[in-house]
Protein: Maleylacetoacetate isomerase
Organism: Rhodosorus marinus
Amino acid sequence: MSEIELYSYFASSCTFRLRIMLNYKGLEYDMKYVNLKAKENFDENFSKVNSMNQVPSIRLDGITMSQSMVIAEYLEETRQTEPPMLPKDPKTRAIVREIAEIINSGTQPNQNLGLINRIEELGGADAKMAWVEKALFRGLKAAEVLVEKYGGKYAVGDDLTIADAFLYPQLYSAAVRFGLDVEKNCPILHRLYKTLSEHPAVIAASPGQQKDFPGA
């Protein structure tokens, strides 16, 4: 049994971020699968793990914590790689955090299942997709401005950072989950998406590689 337990759902982009980080850092972890579609996140036992009834949550070092940005920074502070996923230079580190937060607080919440299902109830499938496309590309295009300025092989420079761990699942969601044309709307991020798709840590973290993926 590993010292790290990750509460995960294959389709959760927030959990996807942490799977990438854990894999990149070479950390062993046990998966605790929570089926959001079946509303297992509202089970009484899981509510004791995460009072927001969300994934991800993680157990390590004798504590349980939630919120992907909090967990990502804790992993970096306690299990740092070389090169680090948060650069040592304060200015560069701020850019990495800015990109991650554009996704974390400015983009991903706008495509949460509960929200878009409610939009569909009120306005139909076309209204839902119009909302998703506008909301996702608003955030992704903002991130692309920064990647164009500061990117190299990866989102910020030539080393994998937390920015990549947050960007890739959102790009995957846009392209695969919603079938949006990322290449047309965000060509720079599309190239980054293709590069990251070949990284072993990303491949292993991808939804289709998870044991709770339908048909796995």
